Amino acid sequence: MLPLLRVLIVFCITLEAKAILRKYKPHIVAVTGSVGKTSTKDAVYAVLSTAFFVRKSDKSFNSEIGIPLTILGCPNAWNNPFGWLRNLLEGLLLILLPNHYPSWLVLEVGADRPGDIEKIARWISPEVVVVTRIPSVPAHVEFFKNPEAVVQEKSYILKTLKPGGVAIMSDDDEAVARLMPPSHATRLRFGFTHGADFLGGNEEVLYREGRPSGIGFRIDYKGSSSPVQVEGVVGRQHLYPFLAAAAVGVSCGLTLVSAAEALSKHTPPPGRMKIISGKHGSTLIDDTYNSSPIAATEALQTLRNIETAGRKIAILGDMLELGSFSKEEHQRIGEQAASSATHLWTVGLRAEVMGESAYEAGLTKRNIKHFSDSREAGITLAKIITTDDVVLVKGSQSMRMERVVERGMAHPEEKEKLLVRQETEWKKR
């Protein structure tokens, strides 16, 4: 899209979005942070939609384009000018004509560059803000002065909470725990740290016929406990979004039991530690949506904890946008892979040092491979994968690691439903 056209489109759809908010006055939940925003947004939607008319951001619509489009209820028209004209017309009709509009909006609010959140937060005025985890080396740190600048950018949304609003914040990250919401807001903490208002515990991997099939855990709140079991995913990284979603639900008047029941029926989005049947009786763990040091660490911890009679193969692509932290963080992940996997395959220029550090940490050299791109890795995986192998696949978006998963799937004809980035625009890239 031409830069001038983009500016014009952003201006017009933002103007319409503001008018729609003034007219319909929906309640707003804003989700920000560095890890798990989309999963949290989807989990919050799963809980609130059991009691209210709710709309959520589509996929990762978390930018100056995506958020107005969510408010308008329109798709991304990409480079189609007629699609943008249609979106503007639909927004105008929503303003001029009576309409049955959602009573709640669940908006994901992201920041790739300094100032991104401030531009959006000035006009959405949420009743509830969820701040997910912000690790010591957050995603997109390359574009900020330092990690603390990322924290400050994310925290701006707290300043816009409406009087009587609720700030729901991770209690397991020092950076988030330090943040203070406005004095007129209620603060609720979630996590696995003793003292959190919504406390997770008893986490376990579920198995069916000897293969991982899901996760189970317990949510504690004010003396009450509710179990949650979710099929089709593994990893603690899912439990944080569920805890946050339970906190949102309870703060909006739902019971803990009803929130837990909604979460047990929830299907997390593709590319986030999803369990997919692999060729020849193997299991794929598809974590290809994106990558960052904290997310890669937790994915490897999950792989370490899974029980299997076969090999554990970690296929890891570059982690991008880490700036000066890049080499150190890739080396650290390689060291962790040595104690989590029996085999490590790396994909991309930056990831190659993972193999070197894994070897230095004790992983057998013949079990370490490097590939220049995801297609090459996928072709090799399809040739060697066998019964009871558990294969973790992860990397940053532009590494296109979903291509590896596609090659290893038992049913590749289901890729449109199960994998990330299957839209036409992505396939052109």
Quick recap:
Keywords: ATP-binding, Ligase, Nucleotide-binding. By secondary structure, the protein is of the alpha/beta class.
What does this molecule look like?
Residues 31-74, 103-248 form the Mur ligase central domain. One of its GO terms (molecular function) is acid-amino acid ligase activity. Residues 271-396 form the Mur ligase C-terminal domain. By secondary structure, the chain is an alpha/beta fold. It folds into 2 domains: 3-193, 3-Layer(aba) Sandwich (UDP-N-acetylmuramoyl-L-alanine:D-glutamate ligase); 274-422, Protein-Tyrosine Phosphatase, Chain A, CATH 3.90.190. 38% of the residues lie in helices and 21% in strands. The protein is built from 16 helices and 15 strands. It has a 9-stranded mixed beta sheet with strand order 2-3-1-4-5-6-7-8-9, sandwiched between helices. The protein has a 6-stranded mixed beta sheet with strand order 10-11-15-12-13-14, sandwiched between helices. A hairpin with a 2-residue loop joins strand 7 (198-208) and strand 8. The chain is globular.
Descriptors for this entry?
21% strand; single chain; 9-stranded mixed β-sheet; Protein-Tyrosine Phosphatase, Chain A; Mur-like_cat_sf; 429 residues; 6-stranded mixed β-sheet; alpha/beta; 2 domains; UDP-N-acetylmuramoyl-L-alanine:D-glutamate ligase
